[in-house]
Structure formats: C-alpha cells, structure tokens
Amino acid sequence: MFDLSSRQAKIVFFAALAVIGFFLFFPLYWLVISSLKANAELYRVVPTPFPTMPSLEHFIRALTTGKLPMYLMNSLITSTCSAALVTLLALYAGFSFAKYRYFGRQPVMLFMLSAQMFPFGLLLISIYPLMSELNLLDTRPGLILSYIVFALPVSTYMLYSYFTQVPDELIDAARADGASDLRIFHTIVIPISIPPIVTVFLYSFMWSWNDLLYSMTLIVSDEKRTIGPGLLLTYLNEVNSDWGGAMAASLIASAPIVAAFMFLQRYFIQGVTAGAVK
Amino acid sequence: MAVIENNVGAYPVSPHANRGGLKAGQNRIGLLLLLPAAIAFAAVILYPFLSALGLSLFEYTVEMMEPRFIGFENFVKIASDPDVWAAFWTTAIYVVLTTTGTLVAGLGWALIMNQPFTGRAVLRSLSLLPWVLPSTVSAFIWGWIFNSRYGVLNAFLMELGLIDYPQAWLSTPEGAMLAVVLTKIWLSIPLFMSFFLAGLQNLDKEQIDAARVDGAGNWAVLRDHILPHLRPVLMIVVVLGVIGNLQQFDTIYALTGGGPVRATTVLSVEVYRRAFEQWDIGFASAVGVLWVAALLPPAFLYLRMLVKGN
Fold first, then answer.
1. For residue B37, what are the domain limits?
2. Which of A137, B95, B172, B206 is buried most deeply by CB count within 10 Å?
3. Are residues B208 and B146 in the same domain?
4. A107-142: per-residue pLDDT in tens?
5. What DSSP string runs through chain A?
6. Residue B262 belongs to some domain of the structure
7. Per-residue model confidence as pLDDT tens digits over A64-81
8. Between A and B, how many residue pairs show a Cβ–Cβ distance under 8 A?
9. What is the chain B residue with the closest CA to A245?
C-alpha cells in the first residue's frame, strides 16, 4: 500500500511498527516472563528483562495447591454447555431469518440484534431475582442460561449472514425431490456450514470463558465458581497478592481459549466482521 | 436485505403446486425454527430488560419483601446525587479516551499489517491475542505492570529519568484512569484492526497505482484514497467501540474496583455496586435506565448502518 523505498518513509513506518508493536506485545511478554521468575527475582524494584533462573514453581503451585483446576473444570463445563446452547438456538434462528419470509421478520431480527446493546449489567439486575425465583441461583444451569445473553444476538446474525449466501437453488432442488425443510436443513445445509458453526461456538465459548460479572454475581459457592472470579479471589485480595501465581495461573487459564482461537482465527474474523464490511 | 426478499418467493415450484399455500406452509416452518431462540431471547434478555426498566419506578431494597411503586422518585434522587453525576462524567472520559486511543492505534496497526513484509502473518496472528484473553487475565497483566513497588512501568520511567521515585499509579485518580484506559485500548486493538484489515482488502489497488503514477506520495494516498475508502468501516468501528466501552465492566472492576475512592467508577461499576453491594435494586435500575439512554444514540446509528449495509 505504502511506498517504502524512501528512507524517510521507512523510518516513519518502522517507528510506528515499533511503538504500537511494543504496546501490544510487551504486556504479553511480561506476563510470560514474570510467570517464570522465582519470587526472589520477581519482587525486585528494578526488574530483570528476562528470568536469570527460570522456574516453574508458580505453575506447579497453581496446579497442585490452589483451586485452579477446579475453577478451570467449572469454566469448561459452563462455557461448553452455554456455547452449545447458543449455537443450537442461533443455528435455527439464523436459517429462519435468512431463508423464510414471514410477517415481522426484519423488525424481529433487528430487535434481537439491537439487544446486544442492552447493558449486561442492567440485565443482571433482573436476571438475579429471576434465577432466584426459578431456584437456579448458585447453580450451573442458571449461569449457563444467563450466558445466552452475551452471544445469542451476534451469533444469530453471524449465521444469518452466512445462510443468506447459501444458494436457494440448493434448497429448492431438494424440495423438488420431496425432502422436508427440516431434513434439508439437517442433511444439506448444516454439513456445508461447519466453519461458521464452529466460529459461532467459539465466539460464545469465549464470552462465557472470559466472563467475570455474571459468574461473580450468580455463583456464590466456591465449588461452582468459574475461572474469572476464581482467579481474582485466589490471587488478588486484601491480605496478600501473589503476582507470580497470578501470572502463571493467567497463562494456564488462557491456554485453551488461545489454542482454539489460533487454530480457527481465519473463520473467526470473517464471522465477526461479517455484515460490517462489504 | 433487498436481495434476500427477492430470492425468497421466487422458488421454482412445480407448475401444479399451489404457490401461495406452499409458501405459507414454508413460512410456518420458518417461524417454528425461530421459536426456540425467540423464547430464550424473551426469557433472558427481553424480560430482564423490561423488568429492569419497570423496577426503576419502584423502591426496592434488601430490607423490603415487595417492591413499592414510587413513580419517578428514583430519578429525582439521581438528579441530586453527585455520585451518579460523577459516574456519568467518568464514563464519558473513559469512553472518549478508550475509543479515540483504540481508533488511532488500531488503524495504525491495520495499515502496518496491510504492508507486505517478512513475518507479517505471524505478527498479525499474535496481535489478536489480547482480544481472546479472559478479562481477569488482562487486568492482572496491567495491574502487575502498574504495580507501585515492583511494576515495570515505574522501573522503566525511572530508568528514563522521567520520574524520581516509584509512583503509586493505581492509588491516584489519574493513574488509575490511565491504567483502565490503557488496558481497554490494548484489548480492543485486535478487534479494530480486524475490521480495518477487512475493509482494506477490497481497496482498489489500480486506483492507487494510478495515483502513484500521477506523483502522489504516501501521505496523499492515505488521505485521498485509503481513508475515504475506510470511512464506512470507520463509522461502524467507532459506533461499536463506543457501545463496547460504555458497557465495559470486567477489566475496570478487576483492576481498580472503581477506585481509588470513585475515580474509575463508570456507570457499569456504579450500577453493579448499587445493585449487588448496597442491594438498592430500584435505584440501580434507574441509573441503568439512564445508562441505556446514553447507549441509544450509538445503538441507533449502528442499526441504521446495518440496515443500509444490507
């Protein structure tokens, strides 16, 4: 795009690269580096740029003594269930919006999408008593249901955008063969929609995995607590702060989501920016 | 949306079939497919939303068994509550700083990542990382960088001679605001970058080559071709950014808890505290209603762009 043959252009370009790149990557570097430093080296007023004696003590401590594995397992359960639920709901809704025409279709779709802008914190004020009435407060199903809030609108829209590109001829041909709509959807449309389905699953999984607010409010007992509030309560409290442990536990908590994301990022970005960029 | 409208209803059905009847049947199936999502939506999004709007007209605190209708009294109380006003003001500062910061850095980074150079693909993938990290993790990272005793920021600034002794960043209003703003900018850059990169993909390269032949420099290409081309994406990104930043809770709560005192208490934190620490549900809902009002203009713009875009 830019012509970098001149010296001046090169300087501006690489200076910008260095500044923004440093801002983006240094915190990640520091996270990794700090997690590998033993306490004696970690708590120094003038920090070392990399660990002189790398140590896995924080990782071992995080995985063996704390409740981190339990929090991880809880997050895995709630995030997987809620992502599966959201994906399933969005799948049918997205197909319905894309391939049928009925009264109120467009307003309903826009309204659902605009719900992404209802503040999650405000919804929580009423979700809390709702869950309390349903006896779902402090339960995993309660949290799983509440997590629908985060991802259902955008997931529906992402799948809707994809399904509009599925040629009508494909569906019509199957209809002409006498297949029912549901059968067409399940045997023809879903098999060719795996990438967007995986994207939506990952998108909603990410929302649940990364949540702090809902889990912190709707879950009281420690044995059901998820990773967000779990990390916060374990490593940063009034009495003491264990930064080495916090860094190691952060890396452990981020690993699954980062791995999944790196693997699927291409689909993911297409899905999230769909509709906004023509 | 027009494209879809035209496609539907144009199914080539057998000449003997009753067109209208078939379509009506199909549309019933369409509604049926929508039903599960619609029920879930109504239960956990629409009902809570309307219920919170309603609760703003009630007095409902932890000691009360039943909410008591008080009309607009909560709003009258808000009008004379300096804390709520302060939260609005803090939110405005936070949203302006985070959105502008992310816009500049995200656009800059997208332009850099659009330039071919060795290692670009790896760098591009890696620069998405802040986006996927759990919010508590982001807060930990920046809390550690800003740490008053062992933080690398203090060490760095002292090395450069910019400060003489370590600063307790998170204990001062400005330092805490700086920390929460930088954290949010950092984790939003990937999203902004992705939008800009997607927009840059369909930039007309020939047009730029032609401009180059006419003697246009880098700056002229950016100003006359790239930026005008990115204008629609820019609008979407700004609106989405404002909506997201107006709602931000997790990183702020984990990093500063809204403090010191109330320096980083934005609306999301204020509503959370009123509702789940003081259990003043009615008042919290009323603040939430005003929060929604603040979200309406960008939300309206966003929807209008989506409708137009389709």
1. 2-41
2. B95
3. yes
4. 888 888 888 788 899 999 999 989 988 999 999 999
5. -----SHHHHHHHHHHHHHHHHHHHHHHHHHHHHHTS-HHHHS-SS--SS-SS---HHHHHHHHTSSHHHHHHHHHHHHHHHHHHHHHHHHHHHHHHHH---TTHHHHHHHHHHGGGS-HHHHHHHHHHHHHHTT-TTSHHHHHHHTHHHHHHHHHHHHHHHHHTS-HHHHHHHHHTT--HHHHIIIIIGGGGHHHHHHHHHHHHHHHHH--HHHHHH--SGGG--HHHHHHHHHB-SS-B-HHHHHHHHHHHHHHHHHHHHHHHHHHHHHHHTTT--
6. yes
7. 887 899 999 999 999 999
8. 335
9. B140
